[in-house]
Specification:
aa-tRNA-synt_IIb, BirA Bifunctional Protein, domain 2, alpha+beta, EC 6.1.1.11, aminoacyl-trna synthetase, 3-stranded mixed sheet, ligase, 18% strand
Length: 460
């Protein structure tokens, strides 16, 4: 949530941010009018309370002086003022609720350093890493969805059968690879000073509002029990779309001490989002699915340390790809592609050479976003009541929140399957990951199971 004082003092800055972010569904004039009416009602209520207090203080004096008529008249005036005050407070509460709901629709203001642009086509590539010494690839790199099915390590048909489109089975060494990547990432970030938490997977609406998922992205979330009858229908629980939600809300409505900061937390969770596959071009495979594993990095910092910690967070997330030897690039989001809650954001995009469905490097393939490293400033902190006390006897201030994926597991699997595949259709496991797979160095597939496998033959 933006600073309400900024809205009152510099509404043009908010208008500029709305224009830069391409937000057209926020009526700022209406919000300003609501705020003005609410403040006027509050002021009117305060004046009437002051007047009633003065009258009330005289009632005792009038009774003590024996002037019962005047005392009775003062009591009537006090009661009349009480009723007026109650009416004003009811209207002020109604306006406040309407104002609060409207304020939640105003996006974060971009940082002054963010490149101005209309959409993702104007994002800025800052650098590429790992392209100096690419490994030798097969003449034809098989896309992960085809090779994964051929090796019997990914199963999309059975995933769709038991759940629906956008879900998959990882099997055998594919499942081992997914587990290994999660633990590999957690170990790396633990080295970087991150504290582990394993949060609840269901989250309530207040938590989703706190991090900015609601109300804007309500349609993307999975509600628990929404298709059931009693006793589930009244539950206010949603499946976690990202560990950012439960972790950021750990300290909701709390005050941290200056000595606590920075707080660096990592959390692995499965994540659930309905928006998977909406782009049409990514419905095959595990690039865009409804359920996916991810390690999330969340930072709570002093405002003065925000920019430096943001750069540090980016570097920490990159280490995963560096150790795996995967080529990648850093992309800075322009204002039009920045997102609702971010003031500044970098995407880390890994290179997957097996598919030309999207524009990739000059040598083919495509870019897959595996981490969005975001600085939210005090935006989430205002929504969630996240504050810190600079000194024990000073007023509490809003802290800054930052997060980044460390990183999204399925898309790293895509890159590994495609970049580390060999001419014979096997997949080499990067050396740093081998200890997490019981020293397995090559995935060479599994025999198919069931009647459908009859006639398919066994793998040599």
């Amino acid at each position: 949530m933006i600073d309400r004082q900024l809205l009152r003092e510099d509404p043009d800055a908010i208008r500029g941010a709305l224009e830069q972010k391409g937000v057209a569904d926020v009526n700022l004039d209406q919000i300003l009018t609501l705020d003005q009416k609410w403040r006027e009602l509050k002021a009117r209520g305060d004046d009437l309370r002051h007047e009633r207090n003065q009258i009330s203080s005289k009632i005792g004096e009038l009774k003590a002086a024996g002037d019962e008529d005047a005392a009775s008249e003062a009591i009537d005036q006090s009661q009349e003022l009480k009723e007026k005050i109650e009416d004003i407070e009811d209207e002020a509460d109604r306006l406040k609720s309407e104002l609060d709901a409207a304020m939640l629709k105003i996006p974060q203001l971009p940082n002054d350093e963010v490149p101005v642009g209309a959409d993702e086509s104007e994002n800025v590539e800052r650098r590429r890493e790992g392209f100096d010494e690419l490994r030798s690839l097969p003449d034809t790199v098989i896309p992960h969805y085809d090779l994964g099915e051929e090796l019997e390590i990914l199963d999309f048909e059975r995933g769709a059968k038991v759940t629906g489109g956008g879900f998959y089975f990882a099997k055998g060494d594919g499942a081992r690879l997914e587990h290994a990547l999660v633990q590999f990432m957690l170990d790396i970030h633990r080295e970087q000073g991150y504290r582990d938490v394993f949060p609840p997977i269901p989250v309530n609406s207040q938590s989703m509002v706190g991090t900015g998922q609601f109300p804007k992205f309500t349609d993307d979330a999975y509600r628990i029990g929404e298709a059931n009858d009693e006793p589930w229908e009244d539950d206010d629980l949603w499946l976690c779309p990202t560990a950012e939600v439960p972790v950021t809300n750990m300290y909701r409505d709390e005050i941290l001490l200056d000595d606590d900061l920075p707080v660096k937390i990592q959390a692995y969770t499965p994540n659930f989002r309905r928006e998977a596959g909406e782009h049409g071009t990514e419905t095959r495979g595990i690039v865009r699915v409804h359920q996916f594993n991810k390690v999330e990095l969340v930072n709570f910092v002093r405002p003065d340390d925000s920019a430096e910690r943001f750069d540090g967070l980016l570097a920490e997330a990159e280490v995963v790809l560096q150790r795996l030897g995967l080529p990648y690039r850093i992309l800075e989001m322009c204002t039009g592609d920045l997102g609702f809650t971010q003031r500044k954001k970098y995407d880390i995009e890994v290179w997957a050479p097996g598919d030309d469905m999207a524009t990739g490097p000059e040598i083919g393939g495509r870019w897959l976003e595996v981490s969005s490293v975001s600085n939210f400033g005090a935006f989430q902190a205002r929504r969630a009541g996240l504050r810190y006390r600079p000194e024990r006897h000073k007023s509490a201030s809003y802290l800054h929140t930052l997060n980044g994926s460390g990183v999204a597991v399925p898309r790293v699997m895509v890159a590994l399957i495609e970049y580390y595949q060999n001419e014979d259709g096997t997949i080499t496991i990067p050396e740093p990951l081998q200890p997490y797979m019981n020293d397995l160095s090559v995935i060479d597939g599994h025999d198919p199971v069931g009647e459908a496998a009859v006639g398919a033959g066994k793998r040599e």
